[in-house]
Amino acid sequence: MLEISVKKRFKDFCLDVEFSCRTRITALFAPSGSGKSLTLQTIAGLVEPDEGRIEVNGKLFFDSKRGVNLPPQKRRVGYLFQDYALFPHMTVIENVRFGSKDEELVGELLKILEIEEIKDKFPSEISGGQKQRVALARALATKPHVLLLDEPFSALHKELKLSLYREIKKIQELFGIPIILVSHDIDEVFELADFIVVMEKGRVVQTGEPFSVFMNPLNLKVAKLLGHRSFLKGRVVSVGSDYLEVKLRSGIKLKCRRREGVAVGDEVFVSILPFSLALSPSLESTKLVVLVRKISSSREFKRIEVEIERERVELLIPSSLSPNFIMEEGRTATIYLSADFIPVIKEGS
Ligand SMILES: Nc1ncnc2c1ncn2[C@@H]1O[C@H](COP(=O)(O)OP(=O)(O)OP(=O)(O)O)[C@@H](O)[C@H]1O
Predict the structure, then answer these.
(1) Which of 5, 22, 139, 338 has the smallest count of CB within 10 Å of its CB?
(2) Non-local CB neighbours of 178 within 8 Å, separated by 6+ positions
(3) Are residues 246 and 210 in the same domain?
């Protein structure tokens, strides 16, 4: 459990963040320079806020009103960066021991993070993924109350990232500590986090469960940040219990997810997601005839670029299902879009 509400003014930047999370892994997601790292530094005690309050698992780290400001060493925060910050003159096991003199715990961490076999090697003799496991073991050896991860995986390739994600989840379950992760990568957020804090220019703009935030982005800017790419403009013409209908400029009526606060007559943007395509017609889908512009294939997906209302829209079809869709570049095709995967965003929100 983390509760934070802090302000810190710099010459050219103002950090003003407030959020609380009861979840296991929270992701701070924002463009570069939004204050993600600064937020972690205030939690770690490396940057002192001008005012505010920080509480982690019932322990008060900072409270400007009560004059509380625990020094970093008393906060017991595990902090991991992109550069591993291992001591080059120490072996793997010596690096981990630096975090704790408890030999049992050190041995356990070497085992959990699968670095036993390299325990006598020096950092220069091991791979990037192994270095990050050692850094993680060293951070956990201090028995931290909270683990802060500042883009620790961004320099690693995909397979290594996936194996470290598994480690992080395992560690969270074993140690039960909250983890705050800074990430630029929405796939990473979906893979790891159960809560997302979207930030912009030093402020929190939206929080929630990742899928819910993804399907209900606050505005166009947040939608783009989360990876939405294709938007169509229209007006809401009916609202039901689960779905609503949007009339596009060409007159097509598109069934979309219902959204709180969106009413008949509202001007909205409809976001067509790569996975909005439905395999077969249903009550919750809309039939459209589209022009197929481009088709390309990868191992997992067929990528189809179609034109809807003069907008280029990218759709993905899992390769295993692609024989069900007969499409040719330059020709029209009939497709069905699933309302469940079509979010709407109120214009001007
Ligand atoms: N000690 C400091 N003094 C003055 N300004 C700072 C200080 N630390 C950070 N900043 C400024 O605060 C802003 C936010 O920085 P921060 O590193 O928190 O962003 P970020 O969201 O983590 O970005 P990135 O994803 O690029 O790491 C930046 O404009 C940065 O220049």
Answers:
(1) 22
(2) 1, 2, 21, 23, 24, 25, 26, 56, 57, 146, 147
(3) no
**Residue having the nearest C-alpha atom to atom 30 of ligand 1:** 33
Q: Which domain holds residue 47?
A: 2-76+144-215
Residue 167 shares a structural domain with residue 300: no
Q: Is residue 98 domain-resident?
A: no
Cβ atoms 268, 344 nearer than 8 A: yes
Q: For residue 9, how far is its CA from the centre of ligand 1 (angstroms)?
A: 12
Residue nearest atom 2 of ligand 1, based on CA coordinates: 10
Is pTM, for the whole model, over 0.80?
yes
Count of beta carbons in the 10 Å neighbourhood of residue 332: 14
**Segment 159-163 long-range contacts (CB within 8 Å, at least 24 positions apart):** 160/128, 160/129, 161/188, 162/191, 163/129
Question: Rounded mean pLDDT of 21-46?
Answer: 93
Query: Closest ligand 1 atom to the C-alpha of 182?
Result: 22
Q: What is the ipTM of this complex?
A: 0.96
Q: What is the CB < 6 Å shell around ligand 1?
A: 10, 13, 30, 32-38
pLDDT, one tens digit per residue, over 101-116 is 889 999 999 988 889 9
